[in-house]
Design brief:
With 181 residues, the protein is an all-alpha fold. Helices cover 71% and strands 0% of the residues.
């Protein structure tokens, strides 16, 4: 993504750490945790790769269509999974947003997508910003009671408050990436 290098590296670190924790969650004994964690790990690492500052590394032209293909497949999987679990609708929106950002970056290599046009914020970017801003606010509210509650000895992969914190951080990262688009 385009933008200053220091915030870009912080975004890379946040997304990579979130992806790494999601990989730990894949070792959970709870099947639902394992299923959700795989898609979230893909999102975390994909967002980290896309957030590397352009001044440091400019991906080759074939990388953006590759991102679009990978996240398009993730969106199709989320759509299929949404038949039985509504949480996967969020994964569908997230993967679709990644496809959108990859296509926008492919269409404007070396430039800020959407900048230079007199039309202002593209409608799709605006809708995604609204969605993810709402998601971040709702996730933050849901996290507050979880932090106050106590619990028994639970493995790292089964801590619901950490899973919520990871989802919150990925939502914040998505907002940051969409703003720079």
């Amino acid at each position: 993504m385009h933008g200053p290098a220091s915030p870009g590296w912080l975004l890379v670190a946040l997304c990579a750490a979130t992806g790494a924790y999601c990989l730990l969650r894949m070792r959970s004994t709870v099947e639902e945790q394992r299923r959700a964690a795989g898609g979230e790990a893909l999102m975390g690492f994909g967002m980290a790769a896309m957030a590397v500052p352009a001044a440091v590394f400019s991906p080759p032209p074939w990388a953006w269509p590759l991102y679009a293909t990978v996240f398009g497949a993730a969106a199709l999987r989320a759509l299929w999974s949404a038949r039985t679990d509504a949480h996967h609708l969020h994964h569908l929106v997230g993967a679709s947003a990644m496809v959108y950002m990859a296509l926008a970056m492919a269409a404007s290599p070396g430039h800020h997508a959407g900048h230079g046009s007199s039309s202002g914020l593209p409608p799709v970017t605006g809708m995604l910003l609204l969605y993810f801003t709402g998601y971040v606010l709702l996730s933050g509210v849901r996290l507050i009671p979880a932090a106050a509650g106590g619990g028994g000895a639970v493995g790292w992969g089964d801590r619901p408050e950490l899973a919520r914190a990871c989802r919150l951080s990925m939502g914040i990262a998505m907002v940051a990436m969409l703003i720079t688009l």
